[in-house]
Amino acid sequence: SFNNIVSFPSRIKDLSLLKEFDCSCNKITSLPPEIGQLKRLTKLRCNGNLLVTLPEEVSECKLLVEIIASENKLKELPSSIGGLPTLKRLLLQNNDLASLPPELGNVLTMEELNVAGNNGLDTMVPREMAGETRLVLWTCTLHRDYRDRIKQLKRSNIQLEAQTEALAQNVMKLKDEILHLQEEKQQILDSMPKTYMAMKQKAASSHLCSIC
Predict the structure, then answer these.
(1) pLDDT one-digit tens code per residue, 9-41
(2) What are the protein's UniProt keywords (predicted)?
């Protein structure tokens, strides 16, 4: 902390036994993706920096219990953060977040989630509820379910369009077959000798006379 650090080298991955990583109150603009190789990491404190997001690879730190990323410039969070099975504490106060990944609703171990001071979140999370963990998670869950429902409806719509197209093609095919049969019938009629037609008409007339 308080070292005016701007970035970390990729060789941070060599700290394979590291359990707590505290880089708070510096001038860091991004964390290296290699942080995902710190498999024993349980606490990540990166508050008071200039971060605009967290690396997707943070989700590979499956033992993470705490992430403190308040007082940054965070504009978004990776959806993969919802894959942290032991995360209990996530502090994101005073950033520039406009939305939260719906996947946060999957983190059943969460005990403290604070997003106060992110004015862009007002449409998703009412300001007075921004520090209420359960309400924020519930909101994320609603957004996740809504997103999944939209995806399902889109898939259903694609299937319906495909079925409609197939039906239209079958109708056109049936019309073509009917037209073809009509043409064949006409060809047969046209090929009949005129004398045969005359005999047929005479036979029909005789039949009518016998009835009379």
Answers:
(1) 888 989 989 999 999 999 999 999 999 999 999
(2) Coiled coil, Leucine-rich repeat, Repeat
Q: What is the pLDDT of residues 75-101, one digit of tens each?
A: 999 999 999 999 999 999 999 998 888
Based on the number of CB atoms within 10 Å of its own CB, is 149 exposed (0-12), middle (13-18) or buried (19 or more)?
A: exposed
Query: Residue 101's CB: how many other CB atoms inside 10 A?
Result: 17
Q: Which residues, including other chains, have CB under 8 Å from residue 18's CB and lie 6 or more apart?
A: 38, 40, 41
131/27 Cα distance (integer angstroms):
26
**Among the four given CATH numbers 3.40.1110.10, 3.30.200.20, 3.80.10.10, 3.40.50.300, the one describing domain 10-139:** 3.80.10.10
